[in-house]
Design goal:
Layout (H helix, E strand, L loop, with lengths): L1 H6 L4 E12 L21 E6 L16 E5 L12 H5 L3 H4 L3 H17 L9 E2 L5 E2 L13 E3 L2 H5 L4 H9 L5 E10 L4 E11 L1 H4 L1
Parallel strand pairs: 1-6
Antiparallel strand pairs: 1-2, 1-8, 2-3, 4-5, 7-8
Amino acid sequence: MENKRRMFKPDIALSVNTTLIFDTSTGQLNTNPDLEANPKDLSAHSIGIVHSESSKCDLGCVFPEDYVRVPLDFPEGFNVQLTQAELFSDDWRIVKSIIPKIAPLHYIATSYHLSRVKAPDPYIGRSGTSIEQGRMGCQSHQDRHITSLVSRDTWNSGCPPNKLYEDCYAAIRSRRTGISRSTNLQNNTTTIHMYWVEVQRSQKE
């Protein structure tokens, strides 16, 4: 098992970041951006990035491409409102109270980006009929791609095999999430970014 961790490289290494924008006056999440007036106004969106240097397979195994920025689809009736303390306080205990409020959206975003990984179709060259079979760059011979959901800790550590292994086999609910927060007083908005920090210690042992 230990040797497998040291030698591990996933078929696909993928990270997810979720961004939410709040009105600093009301603390209300903007769930209805005016896309007709501003097509780029994705107030709630997620970004999924494939780290090809840490993946066995190439980008052809992920649809539609390596870097995708998509608006979030909110569950019916979903609503989030932050307090003024959550928007502006420097007390980390208060800031952490934001996490359970927005984590459901991060789970949804993560599920979407993981669904972008195609079924394996390893390239086997030409058959007896001289027809090429499989997808060029696909190295997986499993029934599904072995995928690591890359955490911030793994990325900051240079994506070592043992951490990619943990990111691959840990359940979603066993992972710790983190956030960063920034306020734009000119636009009267506060932006929250949520990401996967690491696999919780009890799940690594």
